Amino acid sequence: MKDIFDNTTIYKNELLKKYTYTKTGGPADYLALPETIEELCDCITYAKTKKIPYLVLGNASNLIVRDQGIEGLVILTTQLKQIHVKENRIVSQAGASLKAVCARACEYALSGLEFSCGIPGSIGGAVYMNAGAYDGQIDEVFYSATVLTEKGTIETWTKEHMDFSYRHSILQERKAIVLEAEFQLTPGDPSKIQEKMDHLMELRRSKQPLEYPSCGSVFKRPKGHYTGALIQQAGLQGLKWGGAQISEKHAGFIVNIDHATGKDYEELIAYIQKVIDQKFGVHLEPEVRIIGRR
């Protein structure tokens, strides 16, 4: 692969805990960090031709990688981070962070993405998950995405294609990969945009355990309930499981306090689900993705 992809950084047996927000995860057989969309597409074409399993990831902020690692080729998009503005729209490659895109929007006095300024994900992941926070969601500002389809064609998908709903997009069913996304924003006052982002970041710092590695909010909000409140009422807040702990600051988070493993996270998630189901008859559905060899 290194002979074929001269300009792409490729590692063998690279530990993914170096890249995940939980600081957990075993090795990828091969890890590629393409720097252009063309390199990304070439890596996928190569994997398909050689019948190598492949997986495309962004900032690895909303997932747990098992300790046995991931088979085949993992492609991280973090080097695909070009952002540009055209009129009232902002266009970003898939690997750019939401934080960077929000900063660029503010620089150009464009409002609409403030809700996402503290979400620690990439643009590709945010579209894939229809990420949201503080009463905002990606679908509210989404205009279109350039995607690589399972058939290998590059297409533009509009909002009507995406089947957005709470923490869902059609990308979760179709094996299409976001290469670039475009958002429709509204002209605003940059000082007020920055003020709102500062306020939301302060809310995050005061309520969420940002001082520890975590995967963010672990579970989707069950209808009619709040996940953190259910976990508190069940007496689980603060529970330690190996090196993982249900955060004492926000019960909807599981933090890595002492060299936690992917197994610690996965078992603690299953235990929380079991207890909440038994006590309240409520099924907690993970928002976080759990991936890798079993």
What are the SSEs and their pairings?
Elements (H helix, E strand, L loop, with lengths): L8 E7 L11 E7 L3 H13 L4 E4 L5 E3 L4 E7 L6 E4 L2 E5 L4 H10 L2 E2 L11 H7 L2 E2 L2 E2 L4 E7 L5 E5 H4 L14 E8 L1 E2 L2 H18 L6 E4 L9 H7 L6 E2 L2 E3 L6 E4 L5 H19 L8 E3 L3
Question: Characteristics of this structure?
Answer:
alpha+beta, 4-stranded mixed sheet, 294 residues, 5-stranded antiparallel sheet
What does this structure look like?
The radius of gyration is 19 Å and the shape is globular. The protein has a 5-stranded antiparallel sheet. The chain has helices spanning 37-49, 98-107, 123-129, 159-162, 190-207, 227-233, 262-280, and strands at 9-15, 27-33, 54-57, 63-65, 70-76, 83-86, 89-93, 110-111, 132-133, 136-137, 142-148, 154-158, 177-184, 186-187, 214-217, 240-241, 244-246, 253-256, 289-291. Helix content is 27%, strand content 28%. The protein has 294 residues and is an alpha+beta fold. It is built from 7 helices and 19 strands.
Brief overview:
This protein is 27% helix and 28% strand. With 294 residues, it is of the alpha+beta class.
Strand order of the largest sheet: 6-7-13-11-12
Q: Indicate the proportion of strand residues.
A: 25-35%
Kindly name the structural category. alpha+beta
Quantity of strands, as a count: 19
- In round numbers, the mean pLDDT is 95
H/E order of the elements? EEHEEEEEHEHEEEEHEEHEHEEEHE
- The helix content, as a percent range, equals 25-40%
The number of helical segments is 7
Distance between the termini: 26 Å
Unreliable stretches covering 5 or more consecutive residues: none
The biggest beta sheet is recorded as: 5 strands, antiparallel
User: Which geometry do the CA atoms define?
Assistant: globular
CA radius of gyration is 19 Å
